[in-house]
Amino acid sequence: MIRHLLSAADLDAATATLVLDTAHEMALLADREVKKLPTLRGRTVVNLFYEDSTRTRISFEAAAKRLSADVINFSAKGSSVSKGESLKDTALTLQAMGADGVVVRHPASGAPHRLAHWVDGSVLNAGDGTHEHPTQALLDAYTMRSRLGRLEGLNVAIVGDVLHSRVARSNVLLLHTLGAKVTLVAPPTLLPVGVEAWPARTSYQLDSVLPDSDVVMMLRVQRERMDEAYFPSAREYSRRYGLDTARMRRLPEHAIVMHPGPMNRGMEITPEVADSVRSTIVEQVANGVSVRMAVLYLLLGGKV
Amino acid sequence: MTTYLIKGVSVLGGPATDLVIRDGVVAQMGNDLSAVDAREIDAGGLVALPGLVDLHTHLREPGREDAETVETGSRAAAMGGYTAVCAMANTSPVADTAGVVEQVWRLGREAGLVDVQPVGAVTVGLEGTQLAELGAMADSAAQVRIFSDDGHCVSDPRLMRRALEYVKAFDGVVAQHAEEPRLTVGAQMHEGEVAAGLGMTGWPAVAEESIIARDVLLAEHVGARLHVCHVSTAGSVEILRWAKRRGVRVTAEVTPHHLLLTDERATSYDPVFKVNPPLRTASDVAALRTALIEGVVDIIATDHAPHTLEDKECEWAYARPGMVGLETALSIVVDVALDTLGWDGIAERMSRTPARIAGLTDHGLDIGVGVPANITLVDPAARWRVEPADLASRSRNTPYAGLTLPARVVATFLRGEPTVLDGKAVK
């Protein structure tokens, strides 16, 4: 039984597979006329967002509402938080309001771990700093499995700013648990010191990795990183690590291209690639709702 | 002044002896002593050490009296067996003038629990651009001899060179917080495997080592004394070993927490383990222990850094770095090094040498007739559980909460007056 989902490492293979299977059931619901289940009726889910993230917040909100939960959106801007309220006091407030689940997005790594000390409900990490984003990894795994039929043995290349990426961290952990083989591709400056200990291979050369990849996942790279000398210029970055049509041709026929969004078109990915048939980017968004429904259902329904 | 007769104490682990403390000094030392009107202390099984001296204490006054005051910090020090502490300069206002260092010095005298020796800032406002009036602080009533921007590194090499040179005029020493600031922008914890997994910005060992390497070369070049604060990496130890072999006049300290804890603690995201320099790896801890035994690292200093609850009960990234340490230092050192150092080695590293570096002539003296009675009595057999609420410090940010530690301070004497008796603060 897990109470919180703070890290992809909280999920063993059986639990992760259960989430993916449940998400599949939830996806079938989306094709029905009435998209709602009564499962979480009377339960309260709080979306506690300390960072703007319309995409993730809406995804969690839709997921919770389709399960008939009461949803409270708590944005840090224009709230008591902007008046200096501490995370602990906010947590105690949510606790007093009887939140059964708290979905938290926070710019500080580990904030959801702290929050979990102060609330009785389930804490779902919706992205913390440069640490993790476990539901993103689940929806990515779900997308891979539905497109390619399996996860075991897949070669997955994760390309870009691994150092600052919570998506990369969660994906490495979850994909390893589920038997996929991950290769991290980045300039050496954007791989963390200590990455050798991760269950993943690393490469500095995108071109040599692509022919063996079943999945290539492009990470968002902020242009401002060049101001901190991580790379010389956006142009050089995209020349060496961006995915364009020519590079895409190096991929095997069946390979898919993923991106967690939001994209920097023209930086890490060209519009032609992003809009190609290999791209699962829009699908990932749709799958996000199903996967988050599954997670809320299993955590709050006490089924995991 | 009360006379004290201490019966059957083991000085530095030697055979049991009696001590008579009268008029601020050790009046008699020997077997079967008696003294009229003396208060007798049964010290059977206890070890006597010269009163401990901390070269690195944050007392937070003036400015952050909600975290600690000179008085509460002095009490914590006495409870930890200290008779003198060097109060770091990063107060508000900064101790960068004769006025502020005299204020801290006077507050210490008024509290009367330990000798509070103020450290003066190297640069105005700790800003690293202009030398503070070092001579004025040296000439003040506080007689400052240690200068440090601790919390900040004197990173400008030219300014560091000048500071090292300038304080030679009054036998001062610059205590450097070795941290190249351009390499630690946004740093949260030791850069390595653990930080990579936790998604926290790393504080690389090289940021410390590069400054130490530069500074030992500067100290050699200008023939000045250098003290290195809170050495935390194996690489720093290698540089210090090299510098000492060359005859550079450098001394170095290590904190108890860097001798015991590793960066694995950060996996809890509990900011009580956030400290600067950060907790390092197990191999760094091992190298620091060896360096302490070999004398490459000269002393243990606490870097006692009290912080209020609200500065620690928050997200890691927003928490202030630092941990309290005065009341646990001796126990940690006993735990990790008594079997290799012995009591004499501990006295060397926690009393004699720090007193010598700080120029505190009344402290760090071996217990003997006529010597100022700055003495700590320790029960080496006692074990105690660290309860944050029981600490004498105003702050509770100890990383050892719930841990059972060996050795307990039973009594502390400051110039013949007990500041701690029966393990309790006297005033």
TrEMBL record, chain A:
Pathway noted in the entry: Pyrimidine metabolism; UMP biosynthesis via de novo pathway; (S)-dihydroorotate from bicarbonate: step 2/3
Cellular component GO terms held in the UniProt record: cytosol
Every Aspartate/ornithine carbamoyltransferase Asp/Orn-binding domain range: 152-299
Residues the record lists as binding L-aspartate: K83, R166, R220
UniProt keywords, alphabetically: Pyrimidine biosynthesis, Transferase
GO BP terms: 'de novo' pyrimidine nucleobase biosynthetic process; 'de novo' UMP biosynthetic process; amino acid metabolic process
Catalytic activity: carbamoyl phosphate + L-aspartate = N-carbamoyl-L-aspartate + phosphate + H(+)
Keyword Transferase: yes
The Aspartate/ornithine carbamoyltransferase carbamoyl-P binding domain, residue ranges: 3-145
Binding site for carbamoyl phosphate: R55, T56, R105, H133, Q136, G261, P262
UniProt cross-references to Pfam families, sorted A to Z: OTCace, OTCace_N
E.C. no: 2.1.3.2
GO molecular function: amino acid binding; aspartate carbamoyltransferase activity
Function: Catalyzes the condensation of carbamoyl phosphate and aspartate to form carbamoyl aspartate and inorganic phosphate, the committed step in the de novo pyrimidine nucleotide biosynthesis pathway.
Protein name in the entry: Aspartate carbamoyltransferase
UniProtKB/TrEMBL annotation, chain B:
Entries under PROSITE patterns matching the protein: DIHYDROOROTASE_2
UniProt cofactor note: Binds 2 Zn(2+) ions per subunit.
Keyword Hydrolase listed: yes
Pathway it works in: Pyrimidine metabolism; UMP biosynthesis via de novo pathway; (S)-dihydroorotate from bicarbonate: step 3/3
Keyword annotations from UniProtKB, A to Z: Hydrolase, Metal-binding, Pyrimidine biosynthesis, Zinc
Stretches assigned to the Dihydroorotase catalytic domain: 47-234
GO molecular function, one term: zinc ion binding
Cofactor(s) the record lists: Zn(2+)
Catalysed reactions listed for this entry: (S)-dihydroorotate + H2O = N-carbamoyl-L-aspartate + H(+)
GO terms for biological process, alphabetical: 'de novo' UMP biosynthetic process; purine nucleobase catabolic process
EC number: 3.5.2.3
Gene Ontology, cellular component aspect: cytoplasm
Binding site residues for Zn(2+) 1: H56, H58, D150, D303
InterPro entries hit by this protein: DHOase (IPR004722), DHOase/Allantoinase_Hydrolase (IPR050138), DHOase_cat (IPR024403), Dihydroorotase_CS (IPR002195), Metal-dep_hydrolase_composite (IPR011059), Metal_Hydrolase (IPR032466)
Positions bound to Zn(2+) 2: D150, H177, H230
Catalytic residues, chain numbering: D303
Residues reported to bind substrate: H58, L59, R60, N90, N276, H307, P321, G322
Function, in words: Catalyzes the reversible cyclization of carbamoyl aspartate to dihydroorotate.
Family: Belongs to the metallo-dependent hydrolases superfamily. DHOase family. Class I DHOase subfamily.
PANTHER family membership: ALLANTOINASE
Name of this chain's protein: Dihydroorotase
Originating organism: Planosporangium mesophilum
